[in-house]
What we know:
This protein is of the alpha+beta class. The chain has 33 helices and ten strands. The strands form three sheets. Strands 1-2-3-5-4 form a five-stranded antiparallel β-sheet. A three-stranded antiparallel β-sheet has the order 6-8-9. A hairpin with an 8-residue loop joins strand 1 (21-26) and strand 2.
Amino acid sequence: MLKFLKGVVAGSGAGVKDLPYNIGEPYSSAWGSWTHYCGTSKDDGSPVSIFALSGSNAQDGHLAAGRNGVKRLRTVRHPNILSFLHSTEAETFDGSTTKVTIYIVTEPVTPLSEKIKELGLEGTQRDEYYALGLHQIAKAVSFLNNDCKLVHGNVCVASVVVTQTLDWKLHAFDVLSEFDGHNEAASGPMLQYEWLIGSQYKPMELTKSDWLAIRKSPPWAIDSWGLGCLIYELFSGLKLVRTEDLRNTSAIPKSLLPDYQRLLSSMPGRRLNSSKLLENSEYFQNKLVDTIHFMEILTLKDSVEKDTFFRKLPQLAEQLPRQIVLKKLLPQLASSLEFGSAAAPALNALLKMGSWLSAEEFTMKVLPTIVKLFAANDRAIRVALLQHIDQYGESLLAHVVDEQVYPHVATGFSDTSAFLRELTLKSMLVLAPKLSQRTISGSLLKHLSKLQVDEEPAIRTNTTILLGNIAGYLNEGTRKRVLINAFTVRALRDTFSPARGAGIMALCATSSYYDTTEIATRILPTVIVLTIDPDSDVRAKAFQAVDQFLQIVKQYNDKISSGDTSGSAIVGISAMPGNASLLGWAMSSLTLKGKPSEQAPVASASSTMPLGSASSNASSAMETPDITQIRASTSTELADQPLFESPRSTDGWGELENGIHGGDENDKDGWDDLEPLEDPKPSPALASIQAAQKRPVTQPKQVSTLRPKSTSTMKAPREDDDDDLWGAIAAPVPKTSSKPLNVKTSASQDSDDPWAAIAAPPPTTKAKPLSAGRGRGAKPAAPKLGAQRINRTAASGM
């Protein structure tokens, strides 16, 4: 039996074997005969506090009081009373003597006297923090006296501990007893262990052991006196030695002095109740106490009060003690946001406080809350998260973004609010570098392909800018399939001039990904057309781009001419000075520079957006802007433009398949199935096509009658003869436009018709019902020259 007991108890440094906690170093101070240790859990390593009390035998009075404290601490629960976790009692044998030790395990706390020295607060911030702590201890005392009819008996600095969130909590319940003032038959001591209380902390009636007077006094009489002792020790910074020292009030704040004097009244019946102290004391009316109190009762506040409070909180937090804000207010704010009781403006305050933390602390205390908020359905929360993503985006881990953040953010691409769609788009500049290739190819590019034909011109522009910025994070196969199609087929043909300008600059910024064949056959032909663009800014960028791409081709030509064929055909623009800022300049110009020819809402786009690009004219995060005000000047809807049409999809990017295929290069992301022109043949056949156009046709009348779309028809004077020479990169010819004039070809086709060179081209429509209404215009022309051909044309469709 003796060996068993010796095995249960380990050495003094290791603690009890069956105690599921490790005992660490002791603090320098503790209440009474207790020793306060730091400790950790053996299960998860979480910090705890361990209080130990030892006695020479089981009948020791200190041990009996300690057992009373354990029982009381286990049963009494309050937010401002120390939280009980575990307790045990063990015996150790040292020769002929027996040593009994009681262990109490609680939440991790620090003695108040040591925490005050650690914080080192001074002036107003010290007084505000003391007010907050005294407010919390007064609530605990009021709970014991008024609600539980219990008497603590020894409220002082030693009986107060501080949690990790800097909350003050009351403990040391060894003397705690029921108040039996209504029991007239009781004659013995009401406080069984009152001998543990130091004489300097005892009021006069307790010093005299006048239990009759104590029972006739209110329940709070003894503990109100203890509150006065606590206030004296707190502000004087000295441990109370004599009762007479309480009369020295030089260190007591003036706003607290009247209440202090009433707490220490010589007449027990006239002492101030702690509940009245909480309600009426002027000392507790400060910013810190009010802020913490508002957060504690946040669920009881209405939405207007919450919104007002959280909008003021970022500025208010700067005026409060920094350590209290980070250790007390920040956890409260994060918890309220996580569980939905806080409004969206609270996120600004959370990020403001989080900026005062170190990178490690920010990752531990703030990021988990932010990640959880992305799953919230509140649109205001989502807008706030996306607007401030630059403040925390770099701290997010790649796997967290790919698995937890992006799936929720991606829902904003198809949101009905244009403002939210644009914020979602811009957030990809921060999130895309952390996404896997599987997510980029299988999901992100599908969304971007749809946004490039969005009804909002600013969103189309920003999509082009984003593609230029994230091109480096795409694999080679995806870049080959996406970039040129997105920039030339879509952006350079957009009716919105800033979108065309963004396409030019995006091509320049990503030029290192194109070989000379692509530059010569697909990029230069489309860019050079924009040198005559109606918008001067687009023209300037087009000339710059032409010069840069021509230089690349010249460099390649010089390399080939010198006989060096070992290198690749890819010659990047990165070798040119100043290229690094090209895309950034394009993005800034969209915001800061407005064109008189553009619509007002677009020209006044906000310059505060993260990408610095054109933004939608949204007046509110919750409302969709008026689409008709910011569309480009055109007589038809953007969705009806031929340049956005595809034979396989209504959104202009072909069949978009949901899900992810086996390989990244085989994914259908919306760009790989684009057909830039009706003729899929590459442009190396330009010479043969030109020669075919100039050859005379043997049957001119038949061609002009049966093939209204052939090269024999007349062309508009403003178009070049080489319109068809752009091959696979030219924009589709509008159905209502006519082709440039070609006198030689027309004369060879119909030499007997002198009007053929200037006649209007035959219409493309072949709808029969329209012929009856429009055919009457052909009758007066019957006697004229060439009337037979006109009649045949009218009969075929007009």
